[in-house]
Design goal:
Blueprint: E1 2-13, E2 16-27, E3 31-35, H1 42-49, E4 57-62, E5 65-66, H2 71-77, E6 78-81, H3 93-103, H4 108-121, H5 137-149, E7 155-159, H6 167-182, E8 186-191, E9 203-208, E10 211-216, H7 218-225, E11 229-237, H8 239-247, E12 252-258, E13 261-266, H9 270-282, E14 286-292, H10 297-304
Parallel strand pairs: 3-8, 3-9, 6-7, 7-8
Antiparallel strand pairs: 1-2, 1-4, 4-5, 9-10, 11-13, 11-14, 12-13
Helix pairs in contact: 3-4, 7-10
């Protein structure tokens, strides 16, 4: 079942089209990496889903609720973390969370235990009585995420949650999002930094100029757009034997060599690749690696996009 869905979603600002018949579907429990260059339409999409921005045309649904018709129902189940947020001067962290707990109409007798749970989940318990305005950027990001979780939403929209964080803070943010996914929450997380999402997202969507160019599992999308399988061979001895085998084997579309490393394009099947491996070994090469190049999120992004915003 799709928890987040858009149908021909369009948003225009005068003559500028930020979203152009945008269609997206995110299943329950996914961490969906929303990828695109700055200005591609990521934040516009998220703000429409958060009921903060009205679409020009088309539909958007969160847990079956129409963003234009049922905003109150959506706000009860939705947690939204914007890419740019502020904290209140003169407030300690516990007071900050209590304020938002009250805004969500959580009864006072329940708020303390809920705040304690959220502080523990985001590893902020030791900071509960410190002023939020004095926090580092990484701590403020955690603080905002804690606020986002205070009403226990089932759907999270996180716009550039790791932007500006140092490497350790980014790793900690990734682990926290994986924990939240394990709790059954559906997460849409946007970024223009591919390394933040590659090893965390269950599926990804690539947006450019307001259009969804690709959506799904990284490996499946690459398989669909590649014209040939990518094979890597690493020989510690017998590089010439490897090259001779490649030159005389049908189904090799081309290759590049650097010393004993070979990057090969081929249309061979698994049985044919097994025969190639056996032949190379028989011819005296010692192989450290022989296998398919899985491809990275960076490869996919560069293949799919054209570099426009």
């Amino acid at each position: 079942m799709a928890v987040i869905e858009t149908i021909d979603l369009t948003k225009k600002y005068g003559a500028f089209t930020a979203l152009d018949n945008f269609n997206l579907s995110i299943e329950e429990g996914e961490i969906f990496g929303f990828i695109g260059p700055n200005g591609a339409g990521k934040t516009t999409t998220i703000r429409i889903l958060a009921t903060l921005l009205a679409p020009t045309s088309g539909k958007a649904f969160v847990a079956g609720n129409d963003v234009s018709k049922d905003p109150r129902a959506i706000k009860k189940i939705l947690g939204y973390m914007p890419d740019d947020f502020g904290v209140y001067d003169g407030m300690r962290l516990r007071e900050y969370l209590d304020f938002f707990g009250a805004a969500y109409r959580i009864p006072g007798r329940e708020r303390k235990s809920i705040i304690d749970d959220v502080l523990q989940l985001t590893d902020l318990t030791s900071k509960a009585d410190e002023y939020v305005s004095a926090f580092s950027r990484g701590m403020k990001q955690r603080c905002c995420l804690a606020k986002t979780l205070i009403h226990n939403p089932t759907v999270l929209l996180l716009d550039e949650p790791a932007s500006g964080l140092d490497p350790r803070a980014r790793i900690e943010m990734k682990e926290l999002l994986k924990t939240l996914s394990g709790m059954g929450k559906t997460i849409l997380v946007s970024s223009h930094i591919l390394s933040e999402l590659g090893d965390m997202s269950t599926k990804i969507g690539i947006i450019e100029r307001g259009k969804l160019l690709a959506s799904g599992n990284v490996k499946d999308i690459l398989a669909g757009i590649r014209q040939a399988l990518e094979l890597r061979i690493e020989a510690i001895e017998g590089g010439d034997a490897v090259e001779a085998a490649l030159k005389s084997t049908p189904g090799i579309a081309g290759y590049e060599r650097s010393g004993g490393d070979f990057h090969v394009r081929t249309n061979m099947g698994r049985e044919e690749m097994a025969e190639l491996h056996a032949r190379i070994v028989r011819d005296g090469a010692r192989l450290l690696f022989f296998g398919e190049e899985q491809g990275s999120l960076e490869d996919l992004f560069l293949t799919v996009t054209k570099g426009g915003v």
